[in-house]
Amino acid sequence: MDRIVLLCEKEGNDILEFELNKGNKDININNEDQNGLRSLFYSIISEAMEEEFSYTLKVQDGYAKQLYVEIATEYVSQLNTELNEIRKIARDDPYFPCT
Fold first, then answer.
1. Whole-number Å distance between alpha carbons of 60 and 57
2. Are 28 and 12 in contact (CB under 8 A)?
3. Fewer beta carbons under 10 A from the terminal one: N or C of the chain?
4. Pick from 71, 42, 36: which is nearest to 57 by CA?
5. Is the torsion defined by CA of 52, 55, 56, 60 positive or negative?
6. Cα dihedral 60, 2, 54, 48 sign
7. How far is it, in rounded angstroms, from Cα 23 to Cα 33?
8. How far apart are CA 68 and CA 65, in angstroms?
9. So where are the chain's domains?
10. pLDDT for 52-97, tens place per residue?
11. Cα→Cα distances 35→25, 27, 31, Å
């Protein structure tokens, strides 16, 4: 199952909007405080232990910051790789903490 990460602009900020079971979570990529990213990653891992999914990047129509598009593309690719690795570890290790 594919989930969406939307790269968009909201109120002058560049946002990655992640689709989660409990609603979408926005990460402001212009903000230096990235504590929300850690919380998001834990939520994604928890959900990944319960169901198989991957993320697909969508870019808002008219979004013009190509550098952010390239960075977000690579980030989503790396996130999917890490989710697959975590799932494999969890399947192989019955004591993995998220299972």
1. 10
2. no
3. N
4. 71
5. positive
6. positive
7. 22
8. 6
9. 2-92
10. 999 999 999 999 999 999 999 999 999 999 999 988 888 777 666 6
11. 13, 10, 10
Pairwise CA distance, residues 26 & 2, whole Å: 18
Q: Name the DSSP class of 32.
A: S
Residues 6+ apart with CB under 8 A from 99: 49, 90
Structure tokens, 84: 């697959």
Helix axes 66-92, 35-50, angle to 10 degrees: 50
- In angstroms, how far is the first alpha carbon of the chain from the final one? 20
The sign one gets for the Cα dihedral 88, 91, 95, 99 is positive
pTM listed for this prediction: 0.87
Q: Check if the beta carbon of residue 7 is closer than 8 Å to that of residue 68.
A: yes
